[in-house]
Amino acid sequence: MLHFHAVYTQDCDPGMYYNGSDCLDCLPGTFQDLINQTSCIHCPVGTSQELAGQESCESCPEGSFQDQQGQINCVLCPIGTYSNFQGAAACIPCGENRTTLAEGATSESQCVSTSIPTLSQWGLILLALSFTILGTLFLKYTVFRRT
User: Fold this and answer.
1) If we measure between CA atoms, which residue out of 68, 71, 80 comes closest to residue 111?
2) Does residue 140 contact residue 98 with C-beta atoms inside 8 Å?
3) What's the mean per-residue pLDDT of the chain?
């Protein structure tokens, strides 16, 4: 007597995996770009995927990063850092005595000085302010003066 054992295989599309009986969507933070796979792949650092059943992960946009695998979202660069490219695994520090004014900076040009002005810089500021006040007074008493 002959016995035939039918082997049932199910074709699982990209974005899915075969768990032994069914095709299931890859979970958020994972992907699968091939057919008929038995597992999904964690999104690499610098990427994320918030949706289930995906064939790829999304690169983190400028101004954000992701330093862990298998994440569902990217994180904005904290104050004092920036990221000027997609897919960053870390943000770049502004440097000594420099910071950003908000999270998510996308360029080094968004880093501003945190230094207190020097005495000579204060002198220039006061000089400019004095000329502004004197100019305003001069205009007030010469141009707008009644004769």
Assistant:
1) 80
2) no
3) 86
What the block records as the tokens of 26 is 């890859």
Looking from the CA of 103 toward its CB, the CA atoms found within 13 Å total 7
What are the tens digits of pLDDT across the range 119-142? 566 666 666 667 677 666 655 666
Give me the residue spans of the domains in the chain: 16-115, 117-147
Contact 32, 26 (CB under 8 A): yes
Q: Could you tell me the pTM of the whole model?
A: 0.70
Contact 64, 90 (CB under 8 A): no
Q: DSSP state, 74? A: -
Q: Which fold has domain 16-115?
A: Tumor Necrosis Factor Receptor, subunit A; domain 2 (2.10.50)
